[in-house]
Design brief:
Elements (H helix, E strand, L loop, with lengths): L5 E7 L5 H14 L4 E6 L18 H7 L12 E2 L5 E4 L10 H14 L8 E7 L18 E6 L3 H18 L6 E7 L6 H12 L3 E5 L4 H8 L10 H15 L12 H9 L7 H26 L12 H9 L5 E6 L2 H21 L12 E3 L4 H6 L2 H13 L4 E6 L1 H6 L16 E4 L9 H16 L10 E5 L8 H14 L3 E6 L5 H5 L6 E4 L4 H14 L3 E5 L4 H15 L2 H26 L3 E7 L4 H9 L3 E8 L17 E3 L3 H11 L3 E4 L11 E4 L12 H15 L4 H11 L1
Parallel strand pairs: 1-5, 1-6, 2-4, 2-5, 6-7, 7-8, 9-10, 9-11, 11-12, 13-14, 13-15, 15-16, 17-18, 17-20, 18-19, 20-21
Antiparallel strand pairs: 3-4
Helix pairs in contact: 1-7, 4-8, 5-8, 10-11, 10-15, 19-20, 20-23
The chain binds iron/sulfur cluster.
């Protein structure tokens, strides 16, 4: 090993004596004239005790937790030990909470930031080797240790830990790296230990760089609060460390990490069998596995089509939180960093914000969700966030909401917070419901929605609630479309005219009491037909015996008429549907007649996903408009189904942006319509978006027609340049 600064990691199983070895080696290096820094990476934070006369140092992690982030300085945690040796203890959380590995990462980031190592010639990392997770592996990343020693006794578990460390090094270095310096054999005077260590060393292809005998020198030094190297007695022990320091200061040969499989290790160390080619066998096993995976992947590619995956809107935390806020009297606590909650808040409010903001309308307060955040930071990531969550839940309970819903993030999941235990804080009046989504550990956005609905129902629904005969539940309204409440108002009014009430919206704006009585409604209606809603339907049928309407909330005049007639049949009040339909027809026709003079003859070119658009095309045709071409983004590769009338207009699958541009230029439409963000423009055609969520009921297309009439008039009067300016702002 020849480089400017010697950086050495000393790994070993907990309790094996690596801190003692490390401290003696630090002193030996300092006696050789090197400026030495020893960094203890064990949550026990006792690595440097022998160097500081038994004085314990503030740990980096305690310091980072307590000091204001902008005032932290390395000097505050850098201790000075014997012979000027720099002493640092990374520290860690209490056992059972937080993440010690994350702690090591935070400590190293801090030391890097303040360039602490640059003041020294040699840096020794004293690292716990029982667990080589990402955090404890930081010292063996290439930017840190240049040489690694494995401290082991002759006990099998100590050798096993050493073998695990070789695996960690192998993962970083592959077969090219040469960073293992060898084994430091800390003898315990056990029968057969010399042979066991020798067999392991031989099989791993490593030298035993030092044999440290079991000696009374170590307890004697410890009793004096110093290292053996500082004592006059025990010259033979001191010589071992002096020689080792000499090797490190000179040209230390380094070796490849060649770990064994568990079976090979047992055979070699315990049974004394010649390991032969064992050292390469672990690599062979993994190489073979890699080949099998390659073969399988190639075979799969031949035969399998990629499964359809819905668009990714966010993580499960995000899906659960955006769903839980629809429990209107609940307080939702995001157990997460602020950024996760902010992202969710944006997701909830942004569709509304965009529309209202650009049209100069103030945001209604309803767009500010009932969502708070525990604001997890570095302290919680390292020391655990359960206590902070408990405090947040207790504060929420004091406000007497209908329920407290906790949604957990990746950070909470990774450090293993006991979030589920927080449910014990539930009171007779207020359930505390923990949705352990753990960010994206549980899955994606849709998984989060499902976990939320199941979790809330499990904890809130009362199976013994009394039947409410003339009522329905609306199921699966979740989403962030602007028209959620508009749709609900339309359905409630239509059903209300037939004497039928809405018992519960699960979940689109319901109180805890309404969710509790979910089984009271004899009929459930899915808001829309999606795979997720179909799964929810099956779950409600199986879990609560819910009965479902065979269809969804209707969109457009034709569907809504049929819907009311069938609901009337199911509740035995068909005669009540007819006057409602008659009156709605009269209103619809009057509105169409009012719009017709402004829209008749106008031509529409539409690009859309592959979904039925009859509701909009019917209304447009009723107003005398014409669809000149429909381009379909066919993600699923299924049969095109934008209309039940194939002769209505030309319908083609979109093959690329140019195919839409060419059609727009050729057909010169008045309106370019799309349901995704499109930058295609054509002459002075106005551009418009198909509503993200469709308005249910008889007059679904009317608001869209009204908007087109206004846009076309603004175009004629030159006012549309306002929207044109907006268009240019984003797509110019
Ligand atoms: S994936 Fe994790 S980090 Fe990202 S927003 Fe979700 S919870 Fe937060």
């Amino acid at each position: 090993m020849s480089y400017e600064r010697k950086e050495i990691a000393i790994y070993g199983k907990g309790g094996i004596g690596k801190s003692t070895v490390c401290a003696n080696l630090s002193v030996a290096l300092a006696q050789a004239g090197l400026r030495v820094l020893q960094i203890g990476c064990d949550p026990k934070h006792d690595s440097t005790r022998l160097l500081t006369g038994g004085r314990s140092l503030p740990t980096v992690l305690d310091y980072l937790r307590d000091a204001p982030a902008d005032r932290t300085r390395a000097e505050d945690i850098l201790g000075t030990g014997t012979l000027g040796i720099g002493c640092i203890e990374a520290g860690g959380p209490k056992p059972g909470v937080g993440c010690a590995g994350r702690g090591i990462i935070s400590a190293f980031e801090f030391l890097e930031r303040d360039r602490v190592k640059e003041r020294y010639d040699a840096v020794l990392y004293d690292v716990l080797g029982d667990v080589v997770c990402g955090g404890f592996a930081v010292p063996i990343r290439r930017e840190y240790a240049k040489a690694i020693f494995l401290v082991t006794s002759g006990e099998f578990m100590a050798i096993n830990a050493a073998n695990n460390i070789l695996r960690g090094i192998r993962n970083f270095d592959g077969s090219e790296g040469r960073r293992v310096a060898g084994i430091l054999f800390n003898a315990r005077s056990l029968p057969g230990e010399e042979e066991r260590v020798a067999r392991f060393a031989k099989a791993a292809g490593l030298p035993v760089c030092a044999r440290i005998p079991k000696s009374e020198a170590f307890p004697a030094a410890e009793a004096r609060g110093c290292t053996v190297m500082e004592m006059d007695e025990y010259p033979s022990v001191r010589r071992i460390f002096t020689e080792l320091a000499g090797r490190i200061a000179g040209e230390l040969p380094l070796y490849e990490a060649r770990p064994m499989t568990d079976e090979q290790l047992e055979a070699c160390v315990l049974e004394g069998r010649d390991p032969g080619q064992t050292a390469s066998a672990e690599r062979d096993v993994s190489d073979n596995a890699a080949e099998r995976v390659t073969e399988r992947t190639a075979a799969q590619a031949e035969t399998e089509r990629p499964a359809y995956r819905p668009p990714l809107y966010g993580c499960a935390f995000n899906g659960a939180a955006t769903t839980a806020i629809h429990l209107t009297d609940a307080l939702v606590i995001a157990h997460s960093p602020r950024s996760c909650a902010f992202y969710t808040w944006q997701n909830i409010s942004s569709p509304g914000r965009r529309n209202l903001f650009h049209r100069g309308i103030l945001m209604p307060s309803a767009l500010s969700p009932n969502l708070t955040c525990t604001e997890m930071g570095q302290t919680e990531a390292v020391f655990g966030g359960t206590e902070k969550l408990r405090a947040a839940v207790e504060e929420a309970l004091a406000r007497r909401p209908g329920a407290v819903v906790v949604v957990t993030s990746c950070v909470s999941g990774i450090i293993g917070d006991d979030a589920a235990g927080i449910e014990a804080l539930s009171t007779p009046e207020t359930p505390v419901i923990v949705l352990k989504t753990d960010g994206d550990i549980a899955g994606d956005y849709m998984t989060g929605i499902e976990m939320c609905l199941h979790g809330l129902a499990d904890k809130i629904v009362d199976r013994n609630t009394d039947l409410r005969p003339l009522s329905v539940n609306l199921i699966g309204e979740t989403g962030v479309a602007n028209d959620l409440d508009v749709n609900y108002g339309i359905v409630r009014d239509l059903l209300g005219q037939m004497g039928i009430s809405v018992n519960c919206r699960f979940l689109g704006g319901a109180t805890t009491a309404e969710v509790r009585r979910l089984p009271a409604a004899p009929l459930n209606i899915l808001a829309s037909d999606s795979e997720d809603n179909r799964r929810l339907r099956t779950w409600l049928e199986q879990t609560y015996g819910c009965s479902f309407f065979d269809g969804c909330l209707p969109v457009g005049f034709r569907e809504t008429s049929l819907f009311l007639e069938r609901i009337g049949d199911l509740f035995g009040c068909r005669e009540k549907a007819e006057p409602v339909i008659r009156e709605e027809r009269r209103r619809y026709e009057a509105e169409i007649a009012g719009l017709r003079p402004r829209l008749e003859g106008k031509r529409i070119l539409m690009t859309t996903i592959n979904a039925n658009m009859d509701w909009l095309m019917d209304a447009a045709e009723d107003a005398g408009m014409e669809f000149v071409w429909v381009g379909v983004l066919n993600y699923l590769g299924t049969e095109l189904c934008v209309s039940s009338r194939p002769d209505r207009c030309p319908v083609e699958e979109i093959t690329g942006r140019t195919s839409v541009e060419a059609r727009a230029e050729e057909l010169a439409p008045d309106i370019l319509l799309s349901n995704y963000t499109s930058s295609v423009s054509a002459g002075d055609a106005v551009t418009d978006a198909i509503p993200m969520g469709r308005q249910v009921g008889f007059r679904s297309g009317i608001p869209v027609l009204r908007r087109w009439a206004r846009l076309l008039e603004e175009r004629r009067e030159g006012e549309w340049v306002r929207d044109r300016a907006l268009f240019e702002k984003y797509y110019g």
